[in-house]
Amino acid sequence: VQLVESGGGLVQPGGSLRLSCAVSGFTFRNYGMRWYRQVPGKERELVAAISSGGSSTNYADSVKGRFTISRDTDKNTVYLSMNSLIPEDTAVYYCNVPYRSLNYWGQGTQVTVSS
Are 24 and 2 in contact (CB under 8 A)? Predict the structure, then answer.
């Protein structure tokens, strides 16, 4: 199982970014996916989740209305579109899949929101 995130970077407050997570090593369409984020000294926080079919999504209260999780089965990729970014969104973002009783993580991508 391999998860590879991309799309992070430096953005000004109010800006947008789209993160991607390309997956391999399992049947993507059969598994729900999640995005987490973590800042130094704090626990990893669940940001968004999407069901295997993509019809159900859930978000942390802190990002509702600003972030959108989606998936493309043809590309084996899950996305996190982030709008109206604020400095508190600064973190390393990880995608995650619970697969066969284990949690798999990507290497993370840094998002920094600063003027």
Answer: yes
How many helices (DSSP H) and strands (DSSP E) are in the chain? 0, 11
pLDDT tens profile 32-62: 999 999 999 999 999 999 999 999 999 999 9
Q: Would you say the C-alpha torsion 72, 61, 82, 44 has a positive or negative sign?
A: negative
Contacts of 81 (CB under 8 A, 6+ apart): 16, 17, 18, 19, 67, 68, 69, 70
Tokens of 50: 């999407």
Per residue in 103-114, pLDDT tens?
999 999 999 999
The string of pLDDT tens digits covering residues 67-96 is 999 999 999 999 999 999 999 999 999 999
Structure-block tokens of residue 18: 């789209």
How distant is the alpha carbon of residue 80 from its chain centre?
5
